[in-house]
Amino acid sequence: MDELEQMLLMQIADLHKVPDGAYNIRKNGTSDGRRSTPHIRIDARTDDKAGIDVFISRETKGESVHIPVVITQTDYKEQVYNDFYVEENADVLIIAGCGIHNCGEATSEHSGIHTFHVGKNAKVKYVEKHYASGDGSGENVMNPATQIFMEEGSRMEMETTQIKGVDSTDRTTRATLGSGAELVVREKIYTHGNQFAKTDFFVELT
């Protein structure tokens, strides 16, 4: 990666180099590197949608997986579907995020649709950061959608941050919690000038 791409990775995932453990780095619509581990497997989707499937085994304890996205093209728009399957009693840190650098006049956009299937008594911490830069007049748009299904006794903690530079964001979170499940969400959205931000949550207890 060049210096610009490395700067974006540092902003959204605190990465100065290729991370230890499992990772998938997406750059301008293609995979720029992927690694699975004995306990965390990352596969390309088998349907017609862009994205990945991440399988986290019950043996996972205190491990992490990084899945950052970098866009450096103007007039580039994508919709990506990432599904996470977390087995019973697993304990994992998932670090995501998107960085856009747009120096053109057209809009660049990333819409990430993440679905989490969290098994019984599993623990998930999910950290997501969004950042945009560029000296062009084109807009930077990010519209994340999160769907969460939590089984009995599981726990998920979400920390989502929009750092700067995003001209428009429409964020949705939907969650279904089983008996004794716990969902903790900390969301920070920073805007300035004419930037637009909307966030919508719906949680169902079963």
Descriptive overview:
This protein is mainly beta. It contains one helix and 16 strands. It is globular.
Q: What general outline do the C-alpha atoms trace?
A: globular
What ranges have pLDDT less than 50 throughout 5 or more consecutive residues? none
Q: Please tell me the overall pLDDT.
A: 95
Number of DSSP strand runs: 16
Percent in helix: under 10%
Structural class per helix/strand content?
Answer: mainly beta
Largest sheet: 8 strands, mixed
Q: Ends: how far apart?
A: 46 Å
DSSP helix count?
A: 1
- Strand proportion: over 45%
The rounded Rg comes to 17 Å
Order of helices and strands: HEEEEEEEEEEEEEEEE
Quick synopsis:
The chain is built from one helix and 16 strands. It has one helix spanning 3-13; strands at 22-27, 30-35, 40-44, 51-56, 61-66, 69-71, 77-86, 91-101, 108-118, 123-133, 140-142, 145-150, 155-164, 168-177, 182-189, 196-205.
Furnish the topology, listing elements before pairings.
Layout lengths: L2 H11 L8 E6 L2 E6 L4 E5 L6 E6 L4 E6 L2 E3 L5 E10 L4 E11 L6 E11 L4 E11 L6 E3 L2 E6 L4 E10 L3 E10 L4 E8 L6 E10 L1
Parallel strand pairs: 1-5, 1-6, 4-7, 5-8, 6-8, 7-9, 8-10, 9-11, 9-12, 10-13, 12-14, 13-15, 14-16
Antiparallel strand pairs: 1-2, 3-4
Question: What brief labels describe this structure?
Answer:
206 residues; mainly beta; eight-stranded mixed beta sheet; globular
